[in-house]
Amino acid sequence: MKNLALLLLIALTAGCVTTSTEPVDIKEVEFEDKSNARRLLESISLFSVQDTEVPKDSLVEYNHGLNVALSALEKNATLGSVGWAGLTGMLLNPEDRASRMFIMGLTAIDKNQTLLTKDLVTLFDEEILRFHAALYDIPVDQISVIEPKQYNELNAYQTRKFLVTNDEFCQNRLDKVIAGRTVKGPGILDKRTAEERYQLMKNEYDGLYQNEVPVLGGCVIPVSVSAYYTTRISGENFPWLDNSKDYVSVEIPFIFNSKLALEAIRDSKVQDLYLFIPAGKFSVGYHFEKQETNPYPSFNSNHGAFMFVKEES
């Protein structure tokens, strides 16, 4: 008998929108003979990446035990042409999500537990907090969850807000945020030089610092958590997880240096966050002077790395 996963679709399917206060229907999606990576991707209603055969010598072992595609972890690697274009891009170009780096949240709930869509985005606060503490090298006790922005009913997402009381981070937030990447210019439409673009961003971050710190006692890290493509799947379909539970998913738009992000996944010891690194070109080198190609997409987590490989069980 074919192995069918029960998916609780909370997305735009068949032209219908499921709101945060309505009951949702259960649909069946076939997971038989699909890699674990593909199961993860289809858990957020993304079906554009197929499994393929990958030569064994194309994979490398990173020093914290995550197997990823060759070139994805080159020193100073950063997403270039496949960079995240923002939450709006994810909603307007759904199938293009597989060309962008993002974090998927996948967490367990009881079989008989009922959740509204708007409540799903709150389930990952602790792991998002720990991930960013590791990413920015901030003590965990200097980050806390504060009142988020209002839940966006139409697009099923919420900007969760994390207050950082580490003043060194707050004063140098821009440099922390763009670590491992480069500011480029001039472009086709934007004629400003890289220095001019950097200074503009610096002025904006300095303004945030002056507005936030006196009022809040720190600066804010906003994180958009989307339940737009959320599903509910039996743990039987994820061999490394508890088969007595169901699992619900969210999508977190994210762009950062891929190597630093993988290290943050490792160091934070998060269990519910999976970093998706797409196939594409990466700018590498100390001055980002050359490009390498990452031929294979992958999910990376503290459960291991998951490739879109046919032989994977």
Topology order in helix (H) and strand (E) letters? EEHEEEHEHHEEHHHEEEHEEEEE
What is the radius of gyration computed over CA atoms, rounded to a whole number of angstroms? 20 Å
Indicate the mean pLDDT. Answer: 75
Fraction of residues in helix = 10-25%
Strand order, sheet with most strands: 10-11-6-12-15-16
Unreliable stretches covering 5 or more consecutive residues: 1-18, 23-27, 60-94
Overall number of strands: 16
- The number of helical elements comes to 8
Form type: globular
How large is the share of residues in beta strands?
25-35%
Number of domains: 1
* Biggest beta sheet attributes: 6 strands, antiparallel
Q: Which structural class matches the secondary elements?
A: alpha+beta
Rounded to the nearest angstrom, the distance between the terminal CA atoms is 17 Å
Q: Quick summary of this structure?
A:
The protein has 313 residues and is an alpha+beta fold. It has one domain (4-307).
Set down the secondary structure blueprint.
Elements: E1 4-8, E2 26-30, H1 36-42, E3 59-61, E4 67-69, E5 78-79, H2 87-92, E6 102-109, H3 117-120, H4 125-135, E7 143-146, E8 157-164, H5 167-171, H6 173-177, H7 194-216, E9 219-226, E10 232-234, E11 246-253, H8 258-268, E12 273-277, E13 280-284, E14 290-294, E15 298-301, E16 304-307
Antiparallel strand pairs: 1-2, 3-4, 5-13, 6-11, 6-12, 7-8, 8-9, 10-11, 12-15, 13-14, 15-16
